[in-house]
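Example record

One chain of 124 residues, shown exactly as stored in the release files.
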Amino acid sequence: MLRVKTVFIAVIDDDESFRIALVESLNSLGYAASGFCSAEDFIAADGMDSWDCAITDIQMPGMSGLDLARRIVSSGHKTPIIMITARKEAGLEAKSTACGAVGLLRKPFETDALIECLERALKV
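Predicted structure tokens for this chain:
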């Protein structure tokens, strides 16, 4: 019998409605997703090693997604990080890559773009 590994994805975004919708979308795609309303809540859950991927908003009150990515990387965790943002400014791709992110999605994004980015991050 073939066993498929469950893929655990953390969604960190202060926009509650967006976070809930993204978690539900990921769960419907077969991932095991959970949401966190801030980078601090994600860190407090003490689960950085528990996640196969983290999807985080760049702009949040308190610790930004960029700061969270730096912290994950500097802590030695190998969790791939995907950044999401509604910001349009130039250079965000370079900033997110410099922080250790493997991808950047600009809101609103299509499900196909999310899946492609996740597959790249998870090396499926």
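Notes: The chain has five helices and five strands.
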